[in-house]
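Sanity check

After download, print the first record. It should look like this:
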Amino acid sequence: MSKPVINIADIELQPRPPAYAATGPAAERYDARMGMVGMMLGAQKLGYNITAVPPGKCAFPLHSHQSNEEMIFVLEGAGEVCIGEAVYPIHQGDFVSMLAGGRDAAHQVINTGSVELKYLAVSTRISPEICEYPTTGKFAVFAEAPAGKDGKPGFFRFVGRAEQSADYWEGE
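Expected structure tokens:
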């Protein structure tokens, strides 16, 4: 295990990996830099990161988690958090709870300020996870797998829509 302590000043925020970077028209609404603190410290049951969102942008689309609970703590800046139908202003020093659930638990952080919005995000890491995106009708399945022969953990991700579902016995 690496050293279990890191100072926030030593966390370098990076653009998202290309597989998770917003492209096309979505790039006009979504952007974030992240420092994956939990991974740096070898966390196993909690995920945590520092996320920085530019003015006028969101880090992620409106979504809900079926399994995992999230919390953010606003470090700098201001914005809004949408949870279900409600919209709450947020600013430095605020804690925000985002529970697992369906459409009523769907949430999104938006930087409505004029400077970067920076927050600590903490979540459980229950796998597999199903996320729903009520605005677009999509869902995503995420699953972590044990490390392979190369020592790197496996990961499965599928994004789709319910109407695209195949019959269980199709092709068998």
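If your output differs, re-run the checksum step. Summary of this record's structure: Helices lie at 37-41.
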